[in-house]
Recover the amino acids of this structure.
């Protein structure tokens, strides 16, 4: 302790706390005062950051870690006393009257919503070097995920404003949770693209800090093997978003401004915004405090399952159970086959896609009690069955979807299931792992992520009456996918099915080899026969009607070798590129009414 005398009072307090919590080993091999003083201070500065960025501070982190490590060593099941059963939720079918009604009530509420994107993950499973939100969502237009998300929020808020006649339009807030791994690149992506049309003040970046690693069952903080003045750290998980939002003061700011909803979403799901209006409509109509969006899930698929858990003491909750826990839980509670598909061909437990809609008032009430801390878990990898030593250091983790775990039984927690093709096509797996996914299960790769966009857009237009050719099956990067016509539109063209129906009139057809890109907001298609590539763009003040027979060589989807080192990584990870041979491009740059008949 004598070494600490050279330090400030705050640093001394932190040192004391560390000694009291059994972390004396951090200082054991410190040389005498005067030697390595700057390094010693750097360690205490790191301790100070670890302490301030964790709700309840480091002492609380160490206490929880000890408890969870003891549970893990004893093999205690976190679901002890709970019986799982299939919960019931709202099931949506795209395009039916119910869906359209929910979309309408959802859109109205968007101007009372704030959006939160969790984008602190590096995407180790994908193995992509850059940040995932910068990846093209589809390569027909090259729009990246972040651009699509921002444009969707802007267009939804515009549509919402139209409903709320007379009220002044609010800038719908967007928060992006970043981490040291993603912060700089995310900021740079926004700044170099003028925030994709949002006001810079509308977007707030909140950076999550990593948490301390633990070296043993006693929760001794792990020192970096190459630097005795540095504690090893690792990500704490997306659950950090709740404490960050709470401590930032934004929740209160939003409440004071009259907002009512907070919508959370993940970094690479290009379909999500097609389901958001209806899902928000469900929250509004059912007055859900928590609504999580789900899709049918194949048994053992690597996404969590929404499950109803009933405890022997009467407690009940509807919560996500991670995929690696669902199967053992079912087996331990009288389902000898574990997680298996039922007669629908899917697991009876809907798949969690981590799109959560929380009602702001009850959310603030809850966080005022918890400070935003979320029930954590630990996953140590032991050296052997004595469970006394770890293979490598471990840490506490938390997930944003575990938020409802601390809620009182009176909380209205629900979920909304919608079709996979409409709502869920994340880009998480690298080509090698995706190619190994059992046949029939989703690949969750860049290949499937992009082809899913074309499928969804084709299916939506088909539902609106457009004759769309059937897809062809092709294999890219070892994955068999359906290739539909490459149809893409900007969110400002349509954010709901009603928008589509208003802009898609009679007698349209699109062949399988075709590409249709609609960029302008007031473009109507009628009597269009497309067999090639057509791109229509216009200023917002132009009303454009497009039709006639358009035929050209078009844009081809061509397979590429994923190991071709000269191709950009964004192309290699999808295994194909768009070869632009011939297209008809129409641009209307002046206000007015225009009619184009090919
Ligand atoms: N993320 C962060 O912002 N910070 C972190 O520390 C970690 C991640 P992954 P995961 O939708 O398929 C989740 O790694 O956690 C962001 C659900 O738990 O892609 O393995 C990250 O940037 C699971 O139930 O997913 O699995 C990304 O945006 C299931 O729903 C997001 O958090 C699964 O997602 C998710 O991170 C799924």
């Amino acid at each position: 302790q004598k070494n600490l005398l050279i330090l400030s009072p705050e640093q001394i307090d932190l040192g004391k706390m560390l000694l009291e919590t059994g972390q004396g080993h951090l200082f054991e091999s410190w040389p005498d005062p005067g030697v390595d003083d700057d390094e010693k201070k750097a360690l205490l500065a790191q301790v100070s950051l670890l302490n301030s960025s964790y709700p309840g501070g480091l002492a609380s982190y160490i206490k929880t870690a000890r408890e969870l490590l003891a549970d893990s060593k004893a093999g205690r099941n976190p679901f002890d006393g709970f019986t799982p059963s299939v919960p019931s939720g709202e099931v949506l079918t795209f395009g039916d009257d119910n869906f359209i009604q929910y979309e309408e009530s959802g859109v109205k509420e968007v101007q009372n919503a704030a959006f939160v994107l969790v984008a602190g993950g590096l995407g180790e499973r994908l193995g992509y070097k850059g940040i995932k939100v910068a990846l093209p969502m589809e390569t027909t237009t090259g729009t990246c995920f972040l651009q699509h998300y921002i444009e969707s929020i802007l267009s939804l808020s515009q549509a919402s404003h139209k409903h709320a006649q007379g009220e002044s339009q609010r800038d719908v807030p967007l928060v992006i949770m970043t981490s040291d791994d993603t912060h700089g690149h995310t900021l740079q992506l926004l700044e170099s693209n003028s925030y994709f049309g949002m006001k810079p003040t509308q977007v707030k970046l909140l950076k999550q800090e990593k948490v301390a690693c633990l070296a043993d069952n006693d929760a001794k903080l792990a020192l970096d093997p190459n630097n005795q003045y540095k504690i090893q750290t690792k990500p704490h998980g997306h659950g950090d978003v709740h404490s960050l939002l709470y401590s930032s003061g934004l929740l209160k700011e939003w409440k004071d401004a009259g907002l009512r909803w907070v919508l959370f979403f993940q970094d690479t799901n290009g379909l999500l915004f097609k389901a958001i209006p209806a899902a928000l409509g469900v929250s509004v109509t059912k007055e859900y405090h928590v609504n999580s969006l789900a899709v049918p899930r194949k048994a053992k698929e690597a996404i969590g399952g929404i499950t109803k858990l009933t405890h022997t003491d009467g407690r009940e909750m509807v919560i996500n159970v991670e995929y690696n826990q669902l199967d053992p839980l079912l087996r331990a509670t009288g389902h000898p086959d574990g997680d298996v598909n039922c007669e629908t061909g899917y697991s009876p437990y809907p798949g969690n896609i981590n799109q959560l809609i929380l009602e702001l008032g009850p959310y603030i009430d809850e966080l005022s009690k918890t400070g935003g801390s979320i029930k954590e878990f630990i996953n140590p990898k032991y050296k052997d069955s004595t469970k006394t030593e770890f293979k490598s250091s471990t840490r506490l983790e938390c997930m944003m979807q575990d938020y409802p775990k601390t809620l009182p039984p009176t909380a209205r927690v629900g979920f909304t299931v919608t079709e996979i093709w409409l709502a869920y096509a994340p880009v998480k797996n690298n080509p090698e792992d995706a190619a190994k996914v059992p046949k029939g299960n989703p690949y969750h790769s860049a290949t499937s992520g992009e082809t899913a966009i074309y499928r969804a857009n084709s299916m939506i237009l088909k539902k609106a009456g457009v004759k769309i050719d059937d897809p062809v099956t092709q294999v890219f990067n070892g994955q068999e996918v359906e290739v539909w016509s490459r149809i893409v539109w900007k969110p400002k063209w349509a954010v709901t099915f009603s928008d589509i129906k208003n802009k898609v009139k009679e007698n349209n057809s699109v062949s399988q080899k075709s590409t249709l890109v609609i960029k302008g907001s007031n473009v109507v298609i009628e009597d269009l026969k497309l067999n090639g590539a057509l791109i229509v763009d216009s200023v917002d003040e132009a009303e454009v009607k497009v039709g006639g027979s358009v035929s050209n060589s078009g844009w081809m989807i061509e397979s590429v070798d994923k190991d071709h080192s000269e191709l950009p990584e964004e192309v290699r990870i999808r295994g194909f590129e768009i070869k632009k041979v011939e297209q008809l491009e129409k641009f209307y740059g002046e206000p007015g009414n225009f009619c184009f008949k090919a």
Summary: DSSP finds 17 helices and 30 strands in the chain. Residues 145-163 form the longest helix (19 residues).
